[in-house]
Design a protein that fits this description.
The chain is α/β, with parallel strands linked by helices. The chain has two domains: about 290 residues, NAD(P)-binding Rossmann-like Domain (Rossmann fold, 3-Layer(aba) Sandwich), CATH 3.40.50.720; about 140 residues, Rossmann fold (3-Layer(aba) Sandwich), CATH 3.40.50.720. The protein contains 16 helices and 13 strands. The protein starts with 8 loop residues before the first strand and ends with a strand.
């Protein structure tokens, strides 16, 4: 089979995953880049990506791309790649509305011989058990006779400018051997790191979901260590630095685990396990530990403030960072909001600054109004919640000048400062 085909390609969903994919393919082949959000399409036509994943230069280099929110433009493609989000609801159950809607949309344009590839993180079996029946019902076509499916899980790390799309090995799969080879050859056009052809769609689905489960559990382990060592008055960072001198010790760090992947994906696997009558213990235990870290950090900071004789209800507390991770505008499932709510329960209305977050989005989604950095004055406590480059470049002396009390609290949640340097300036220092 040829490594390259001339089939018209469509990418459905132009978020953190879909846009880089569409842009990369469009360097060499025609791509219909579709999103239901008209504002998003307008921005992209103006070479502006608010996610920060693609620069204006990269978008301009995608000469063969057509940005559209008109579903009539989905009539012509022969290959559809679906990259819509798969979040969880308030009960931590999979929210499949987006992927079901996308399946219906693609199904209404599906023709004989077409291939539909899903990239969204799902539980094993979802593609064939949920998406395929929708495609069949809407199109009137038969799976693996009239149309075919593939699954190639996204592995993009938002905000990461080193491990980008083309540099990460791509898992591929197809609903039959011929389709699997075609899907693999398609991604091989753009993935310089190479591809890994899985034997089935379910294998590919499973591989993706356990990647984030594994990372979640490793972080949960060091988070639990952090809680234990805090009770022993032992610095967790120093313990980990010592342990990391052994070649096979895994260098995970404690912290609040948010975002659209690690804090979400394990629930897809546990949901399917419970549906089959199995009660997953370790995975859910890890989730409980990680979900507790924002509250743990908040209470620990309050205790530090009390020991510094700061009147809690009248205190001025600044929070640096709101996004779920550094150098990224993504606020989905950020755990900083849990930290803020903990402070609010104690009568504190924190001053929140974040140069990466969109203030309109934070207000609309969370009811949080971001402040200008100039408002970080006369503080009693500072929480460095997200280590954006802008905050990493702040000297401790600059932070100290923003404080009004003799022994202000500095909560360095990612441990970017040296403890002894902070304490030498009078900070009551805390890190996880």
């Amino acid at each position: 089979m040829s490594s390259k085909s001339n089939k018209l390609l469509s990418v459905v969903g132009l978020g953190y995953v879909g846009l880089p994919l569409a842009v990369e393919f469009a360097k060499n082949r025609e791509v219909v880049a579709f999103d239901i959000n008209a504002d998003r399409i307008t921005q992209l036509k103006g070479f502006n990506d608010v996610t920060g994943e693609c620069s204006d230069k990269e978008i301009k280099a995608a000469k063969k791309i057509k940005f559209t929110n008109n579903d009539a433009d989905l009539d012509e493609p022969e290959i559809y790649i679906v990259t819509v989000p798969t979040p969880i609801d308030k009960s931590n159950n999979p929210d499949l509305n987006a992927i079901k809607s996308a399946s219906s949309l693609v199904g209404s344009h599906l023709k004989k011989g077409n291939i539909v590839i899903f990239e969204s993180t799902v539980f094993p079996g979802l593609t064939e058990e949920i998406c395929v029946p929708i495609l069949e019902s809407i199109s009137g076509l038969k799976f693996n006779l009239d149309f075919f499916c593939g699954y190639s899980p996204e592995r993009i790390n938002p905000g990461d400018k080193v491990n980008t799309l083309t540099k990460i090995t791509k898992i591929t799969s197809g609903s039959n051997p011929e389709t699997a080879l075609e899907v693999d050859a398609l991604y091989a056009e753009i993935i310089t790191a190479g591809t890994h052809l899985a034997s089935s769609i379910r294998i590919a689905e499973s591989a993706k979901v356990i990647e984030n489960c594994q990372r979640d559990l490793n972080i949960a382990f060091v988070n639990e260590l952090s809680k234990i060592f805090q009770l022993m008055n032992i610095d967790t960072k120093e313990v980990l630095e010592a342990s990391e001198t052994k070649w096979n010790f895994l260098p995970f760090k404690p912290g609040m685990v948010g975002g659209h992947c690690i804090g979400v994906d394990p629930f897809y696997l546990t949901y399917k396990a419970e549906e089959l009558g199995y009660n997953p213990e370790i995975i859910l235990a890890g989730r409980r530990i990680n979900d507790s870290m924002a509250k743990h950090a908040g209470i620990s900071i309050i205790r530090k403030m009390s020991k510094s004789n700061i009147k809690i209800s009248h205190s001025r507390l600044g929070i640096l960072g709101f996004t779920f991770k550094e150098n990224c505008p993504d606020i989905r499932n950020t755990k900083v909001i849990d930290l803020i709510k903990e402070f609010q329960d104690w009568g504190i209305n924190p001053i929140i600054v974040d140069p990466w977050a969109n203030s309109n989005e934070t207000n609309q989604i969370y009811g949080i109004k971001l402040s200008d950095s100039k408002e970080l004055v006369d503080l009693d406590a500072i929480v460095v919640a997200v280590p954006h480059n802008e905050f990493n470049n702040l000297r401790l002396e600059e932070l100290r000048e923003k404080c009004r009390v003799s022994n202000p609290v500095l909560a360095d949640l990612k441990g970017i400062y040296k403890k002894e340097d902070a304490e030498s300036l009078g900070f009551n220092y805390f890190r996880l």
